[in-house]
Amino acid sequence: MDVDSQRAEWQTAISPSEVEKMPTAGLTEKRSEAHTEAGELSLRNFLSQLEKEHPAEVLRISRPVDPAQYEVAAILKHLENCGKFPLVYFEQPKDLRGQISPHPLVSNLFASRERCALALGMAVEQSGMELSLGYARRLKNPLAPVRIAPADAPVKQVVARGAECDLRNYPIVRHHEMDPAPYIDMTPVMKHPDAGFYNVAFLRNMYKGPQRLGIHMSPRHNWQIFRLHETRNLPTPVAIVVSHHPAFYLGALNVEPFGSDDYAVIGGIVGRPLRLVPSETWGEQFWVPADADFILEGEIPPGVREVEGPFGEFTGYYGPQRVRPVIDIKAVTHRRNGFVQHSFVGHRDNWFLGGIPKEGTVFNVVKGIVPSVKAVHFAQSGSCRFNCYISIDKKVNGETKQAALAAFGAVDFIKNVIVVDADIDPFNEQEVMFAVATRTQARESVDIIKNVKGNTLDPSQQDDIMTDKLLIDATMPVGKPFSARVQVPAAALQKFPLEQYVSASQLDSIATFLDSRRSV
Amino acid sequence: MARIFYVTCPGCTGRFSCHYEELRHNKQYPLLCPYCGKRFLDEESPKVEE
């Protein structure tokens, strides 16, 4: 079944008039049809609009592929080697039994900032800092979710419970050579047992059997919720949102403080309240996203551990085999022919997704301390986590360190901060390095902060928790003469336009050096 | 990252990384070879790099 023929069926789940009544949090960004036309926040509507309006962004592969045998990963890697990063729509993936699955597989959705902008209803031209700033504005306007009945929830179109559940029925991707099994690498949702808020996080889930997954948690928010349950000898309810509209996942990667309700935060990022429905396993004690394509419900039994991993991680390195909790699957719910998604971890698909929300968060925090902040960029060179470039229009000396320290405090992933002046584009890593080369003296410009919380997956980190942070002030001093950058006179550029000397076809035939392009 | 060690599978000779604190000399949790699925204790490995 193609997307267009599916579309009419899915559009009926929520009427346009209902959507009109929903608050939009005062958003000012231009909304693309990819977000609003069909009304329903669904992956299939997004794909349909993307294929219609930006067909070059989508690559359909119709021949059968076997995700568990690295076939999907190989195709994505070949494309990456060619410098191509389309969303890849596998029409006939095989399930874990080797049979053609009725569930299409979507890969690489987040491998371009342009598609991330479209997912948030913004224009492709806004995919640079505007995208992150738009995200930052929306973070300030969480929207409480709305609750609907199961009969109205698309994700309840097909329900399997207990012994009916069998993970072998679905296409699950094995990514890298040292991964011991296919992995689901999307977003488990957990609920705080006392405060009642929900936390959504990207975590890896290793296939272990028809009704069992492994789960790796760093000591962050979901881990805290799990530990609370386990210390009380209680199973931890978990709902894995395997497939949903991309805005849901961009929202899920917010770095709001522990205690924020992620369903409300995600609603703010999406620009409309999430619709929730009671889970199959815990009823109204645990609500799940009604418009998802695919959800797995399960419980983490207390005190149970098994080996898990290695797993190719976002850093581009393997995380080692460890002893980790497991999830016993209790129910599977999905749309008819629901999509399965995965993130190509350790590659662009996984990097931008993590970087954009953090850019917005850091911008908001720094803005409160250094109002002249212009832009924040998490560069690909640091897996969009470790290297953070901040540009400020410095008014007084000392603001640089204020900005850097605020960033370190806001996002513990950050390992290296380089602060540059407003004339440097932090989205262009070559310019950032130009500033480092020409505006720093190591003894004055570099600070190292030892023993700060880092990320357990950083392969250079010697301690399980702590790391060292590097701060580089690559700004020019205030109140002291500093050499000016060379400039061809603006008047000359205007007086002698290139078109007078070089035709468009000649220009097109000249090689473009990749390192001169924006390094997003 | 925490300390790791590399172990060689006694079945297929595949080499993979493990968390040192959690899995080195741990008889409770046999290692799982990601290449052939064999389960074994690290002391059964023909080569451990630590």
Report the principal-axis shape of chain A.
Answer: globular
Please give the share of residues in helix of chain B.
under 10%
Major beta sheet summary of chain A = 9 strands, antiparallel
The biggest chain-chain interface is: A-B, 23 and 18 residues
Overall mean pLDDT of chain B stands at 96
Shape of chain B: globular
Give the uncertain stretches of chain A in residue-range form: 1-38, 516-520
What structural class do helix, strand and pairing data of chain A support? Answer: alpha+beta
Largest sheet of chain B: 3 strands, antiparallel
What would your notes on this structure say?
The complex is a heterodimer of chains A (520) and B (50). Chain A is of the alpha+beta class and 520 residues long. In chain A, the strands form 6 sheets. In chain A, strands 5, 6, 7, 8, 9, 10, 11, 14 and 19 form a 9-stranded antiparallel beta sheet that branches. A 5-stranded mixed beta sheet of chain A has the order 21-22-23-25-24. In chain A, strands 1-2-3-20 form a 4-stranded mixed beta sheet, covered by helices on one side. In chain A, helix 1 packs across helix 4 and helix 7 (129-139) packs across helix 11. Residues 1-38 and 516-520 of chain A have low confidence and may be disordered. Chain B contains 1 helix and 5 strands. The two termini of chain B are 14 Å apart. The mean pLDDT of chain B is 96. The chains are: A alpha+beta (520), B mainly beta (50). At the A-B interface, strand 17 of A face strand 2, helix 1 and strand 3 of B.
